[in-house]
């Protein structure tokens, strides 16, 4: 695929923000339409998954027609950067559950979820390898040593 999936993930996040600004209609500290908040939460969560799929090996060990589980993403992220498990869990809880299912209308919660999504997409872009367009085989040691390649 010749299109960078990290850019595609950022496009998902921009679409989620557009849905909120144009359709969910902010009224003070709340949005007025839960339907569009749910839609925006789902779109933003899909953007996170697009970015993670680009840098992680989650789908390579799945059987035909098997879907990855959230715990698969969580364990794959923790192998690369254990500090990213909490932001990923927060994004999952906020975007997928609280916004995507519940349609929480509180503006601050929605913005926190979108900020977490942007943080994860930015993290994925740092681990993106455009030459292979597959998951880089990174470990903490190899990523640390790659910073000293000038030797």
Structural write-up:
With 151 residues, this protein is mainly alpha-helical. The protein has one domain (5-146): Four Helix Bundle (Hemerythrin (Met), subunit A). It contains 6 helices and 2 strands; from the N terminus they run H-E-E-H-H-H-H-H. It is elongated and about 45 Å long.
Write the layout of secondary structure elements.
Blueprint: H1 5-24, E1 26-27, E2 30-31, H2 34-55, H3 70-80, H4 85-99, H5 107-126, H6 140-146
Antiparallel strand pairs: 1-2
Helix pairs in contact: 1-2, 1-5, 2-4, 2-5, 3-4, 4-5
List key phrases describing it:
151 residues; mainly alpha; Four Helix Bundle (Hemerythrin (Met), subunit A); two-stranded antiparallel sheet; 6 helices; 2 strands; elongated
With helices defined by DSSP (H or I, 4 residues minimum), what is the helix count?
6
Strand order of the largest sheet: 1-2
CATH topology: Four Helix Bundle (Hemerythrin (Met), subunit A)
- How far apart are the termini? 34 Å
Oligomer: single chain
Low-confidence stretches: 134-151
Number of separate strands: 2
What's the helix-strand series?
A: HEEHHHHH
Strand % is under 5%
Share in helix: 55-70%
CATH architecture classification name: Up-down Bundle
**Biggest sheet layout:** 2 strands, antiparallel
């Amino acid at each position: 695929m010749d299109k960078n999936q990290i850019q595609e993930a950022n496009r998902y996040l921009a679409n989620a923000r557009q849905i909120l600004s144009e359709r969910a209609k902010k009224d003070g500290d709340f949005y007025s339409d839960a339907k569009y908040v749910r839609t925006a939460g789902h779109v933003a969560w899909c953007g996170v998954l697009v970015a993670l799929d680009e840098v992680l090996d989650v789908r390579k060990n799945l059987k035909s027609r098997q879907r990855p589980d959230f715990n698969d993403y969580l364990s794959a992220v923790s192998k690369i950067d254990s500090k990213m498990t909490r932001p990923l869990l927060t994004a999952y809880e906020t975007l997928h559950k609280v916004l995507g299912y519940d349609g929480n209308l509180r503006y601050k919660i929605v913005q926190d979820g979108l900020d977490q999504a942007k943080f994860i997409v930015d993290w994925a872009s740092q681990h993106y390898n455009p030459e292979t367009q597959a998951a880089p085989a990174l470990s903490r040691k190899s990523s640390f040593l790659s910073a000293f390649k000038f030797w």
